[in-house]
Design brief:
Layout: H1 7-17, H2 23-32, H3 40-51, E1 58-65, E2 68-76, E3 81-86, H4 97-113, E4 117-122, H5 129-132, H6 134-155
Parallel strand pairs: 3-4
Antiparallel strand pairs: 1-2, 2-3
Length: 156
């Protein structure tokens, strides 16, 4: 999808395969695919939220703040809840790690000042622990949703 294929095109390719082993899983993957994901971790996060029967968040949601427009990995706009996947790629890019962390801190502070609540998923290490502990992930997401609702009620 990042290269331009549509869900309909991918579904058509799978339909032409008929009944072969793994076709059901492949259809599920296509159904959950979203070209807006910018990393494997974001895709896995979306799949985990689906698996846990949690409402689908909006991927790559843009928010205007005093420092400009910022894009959130995932958002629940009505709650002003941001869900960020922290895979460490920002700290391994062209920008020095210390500068990338400072920029991320400023970005998050500006979004919080605009009323956003944050839930960060830690994906460091080979186990990506936050994505594969269903009970803990669901509890954290539900707690973040409750906190976002509480903040909105307090601000009203």
């Amino acid at each position: 999808m990042r290269r331009g294929a549509t869900k309909a095109e991918m579904a058509q390719v799978l339909a032409a395969r008929g009944r072969v082993p793994g076709i059901g899983k492949a259809r599920n993957v296509v159904e959950l695919a979203d070209g807006r994901s910018q990393s494997v971790g974001e895709s896995l996060t979306r799949v985990a939220l689906h698996r846990l029967n949690l409402p689908a968040p909006v991927p790559q949601f843009e928010v205007r703040t005093r420092l400009g427009v910022h894009r959130l990995d995932f958002a629940r706009p009505k709650l002003k809840l941001a869900l960020e996947f922290d895979g460490g790629l920002k700290c391994r890019g062209k920008t020095p790690a210390a500068e990338a962390l400072l920029q991320e801190r400023k970005r998050e502070r500006a979004l919080q000042e605009a009323g956003w609540t944050f839930l960060r998923l830690d994906a460091e290490g080979p186990e990506w622990k936050d994505l594969f502990n269903d009970a803990a992930l669901k509890a954290r997401v539900l707690a973040a949703m409750a906190e976002a609702r509480r903040r909105q009620a307090a601000a009203a």
